[in-house]
Amino acid sequence: MPFTPHAHDAGPAGPARAGQTPGPLIEPSPTPGRHRVTFRWRAGSADERAVVLINTLTDRDRHAGDIGGHVMSRVPGTDLLQLTYELDADLRASYQILPCTEIPGTDRDSWLRVMMTALPDPGNPLRVPGSHGRNPSSLLELPGAPAQPYRDRRPGVPEGRVHEAEAAGRRVWVYTPPGHDAGADPAVPSGTRPVASPGAYPVMVLLDGDVWAGRIAPTMDNLIAEGRIPPTVVLLPDAVDRPTRLREMACHEPFVRHLAGELMPWAARGWRVTDDPALTVVAGQSFGGLTASYAAFVAPERFGNVLSQSGSYWWSDEDPEWLTRRYERSPRLPVRFHVEVGRQEWMLLEENRRFAETLAAKGYEVTLAEYNGGHDPACWLGGLAGGLTSLAAGWL
């Protein structure tokens, strides 16, 4: 069924009328371990309706063909729409609200339009940046959600820098820690300096750099200042666009060869990063998690640590869990893993567990972390800090 979105100001202040409605109302539930969460939206017209889009939870029902349980009801005699859920007390999730005059269909095309149209909650100041052209989301953190102590910038903590550059024809952002000494001009041509130098920095390659370039610095600064990790450089290659991302992050060997054979030597020459795989992490989320694991499979001599979050280990449709079987059938490689997945990720949870179990059975050093949340950047930033801390424990 087609739907007609309503136009609203999605700016920081939101529409003036919506400012009268605060963010979600969170109350204890009679059910142990749960909370009642009421979302509210002030309608701009008599025919306006609204749908609550909680990351992964709403999408699960969309896949089942029925989002009726996420449609707000009007409080009689008012312009207020609201909907109450009973949710686990440790849930963390991003969410949006879709104002509309007709409830959208659950087919893929309709849902793609929903994702490009839905808005953050104007009554909730906590935001999660959007990606790939989408609006920001709002952040819901229930009282029992695990702390994310490294997420936000702390006053007085020395700040690193994020530089924008180009490596082998691709845009890349580079986070350098406070006091970083590159020891060379990033523009030095290839072949004029050795690939490694004494005292080189540990390095993390964080895929989908266009998503993370504006978010990673406070986390890295805080981890370094607290002594959880040594000063570390982060390389953030651009995913370019959606078609390129879908091609390159589906166990695409040419992309991995680019990372190992072009990006890493470029960074060693210009940013003084190590060539030691034991001090190198490749990290990613969703298809990026799959690609990080594939990169270590193809180039273990360059990538000795994998940080995978919500990895798409179901891939591919023609040959499900292809990479898991490749690891199972191949000799153990000198690679360590931190695998993280949300318990609400009904399409990925078991696949991530099987991947971690397969690695453990082969003798790999692997940790598996699960959180109460979905396929969600609101969870990934905190998990990224935890995973990097775990992998870097022996670097200090």
From TrEMBL:
User: Can you give the residue ranges of the Enterochelin esterase N-terminal domain?
Assistant: 36-149
Q: Name one GO molecular function term.
A: enterochelin esterase activity
Please list where the region (Disordered) is annotated.
Answer: 1-34, 123-158
Top-level taxonomic group: Bacteria
Which UniProt keywords are listed?
Cytoplasm, Hydrolase
Question: What SUPFAM superfamilies does the record tag this protein with?
Answer: alpha/beta-Hydrolases, E set domains
Localization (cell): Cytoplasm
Q: Name one GO cellular component term.
A: cytoplasm
- Major location (coarse): cytoplasm
Comp. bias (Low complexity): 10-24
Answer yes or no on keyword Hydrolase: yes
Gene3D superfamilies from the xrefs?
A: alpha/beta hydrolase, Immunoglobulins
Q: List the GO biological process terms.
A: carbohydrate metabolic process; iron ion transport
Describe the family membership recorded for this protein in Swiss-Prot or TrEMBL: Belongs to the Fes family.
Q: What protein does this entry describe?
A: Enterochelin esterase
